[in-house]
Amino acid sequence: DVLLNLLRFNSTADESSDQRVSLAMYKERAKEEQKKIYFVLGENLTTARQSPHLEVFKQQNIEVLLLSDRVDEWLTSFLTEFDGWAFQDIMRGELDLPNVEKPEDLDDDPLVQRIQEVLGEKVESVRRSTRLTDSAACLVLGDDDMGQQMRRIMEVTGQSVPDSKPHFEINSDHPLIQRLDAESDEDRFKDMVLILFDQASLADGTALLEPGEYVHRINRLLLNLLE
What we know:
Elements lengths: L9 E2 L11 H6 L7 E6 L3 H5 L5 H5 L5 E3 L4 H5 L4 E2 L2 E5 L20 H10 L5 E4 L8 E4 L7 H9 L10 E4 L4 H8 L3 H18 L7 H16 L1
Parallel strand pairs: 2-3, 2-5, 6-8
Antiparallel strand pairs: 1-3, 4-5, 7-8
């Protein structure tokens, strides 16, 4: 804890670009029912601040640490707890927050199944989200998956990077998802799903594997609107 007390972070509660939030400060001003230290990783501070994963935390007024240094993902792999509070990467796994109702887990959810069929092997699963309030969709890592920062470090150093697939979460209340649910044209449905998937990747700071295809899909939808 001596070394942990020396660490300083950016935070959603501090608009400054200076890293000046200590773990003790974070814990002192946390909500009464809170028992974890939440953080989000980003390619840079702007990406971290704009992460869709923050939306439910902003709604609940829960502070989140913003980690954007290249070594931060490596650092967090060694951080287990501070003063009895566990660290939690909000981009991983399912969230368990007070006052946030989990969506009903339906094995026969028609929209989830249609999206899963389009994305196929691109994702581990498709599910309805408890994270999102404003965005239509986001990508979520598995608890044991390697994040983007570590993947880039390993790629640059010529090391093999283990395969992993994200979970694709959709916001049931978003107009785009509701429009998607009502879409009967299968080609247009496929374009919309793949665009949302690529947008979720971009929001996480991930470069698209096929940017040309993304542009073509956007253009097809724009042409449909103009017809």
